[in-house]
């Protein structure tokens, strides 16, 4: 089991925040970006769209069959592919643990 998985389990037990990738979030969840695990070009593209560490994101739509996700960042609606979304690590609050 990885160190991050162990930390996530400990955080769940304490009732604190949980880190996970954006694709694991449910529709309507508001989360905060922790980091982007991607190459320079992908990080630059996401930064140009406003997806940077510390920013709040709300996941609004989840297309079926592993399609793209719709998110709201700083009041703007964006659609990003699932592959890119899987590289965005976010922190959710206690509400998304239930």
Structural class: alpha+beta
Number of strands: 6
Largest sheet: 6 strands, antiparallel
Q: Give the N-to-C terminal Cα separation.
A: 23 Å
* Unreliable stretches: 9-15
Would you identify the CATH architecture?
Roll
Spatial sequence of strands, sheet with the most strands: 1-6-2-3-4-5
| CATH topology term | SH3 type barrels
Q: What's the number of helices? A: 3
Order of helices and strands: HEEHEEEHE
Instruction: Report the radius of gyration as a whole number of Å.
Output: 13 Å
Based on Cα principal axes, name the global outline: globular
Number of domains: 1
Kindly describe this structure.
- By secondary structure, the protein is α+β, with helices and mostly antiparallel strands.
- The chain has a single domain (about 20-95), classed as Ferrous iron transport protein A (FeoA) (SH3 type barrels, Roll), CATH 2.30.30.
- The protein has three helices and six strands.
- The protein has helices at about 5-15, 40-50, 80-85; strands at about 20, 30-35, 55-60, 70-75, 75-80, 90.
- The chain has a six-stranded antiparallel β-sheet with strand order 1-6-2-3-4-5.
- A hairpin with a 6-residue loop joins strand 3 (about 55-60) and strand 4.
- The protein is globular and about 30 Å long.
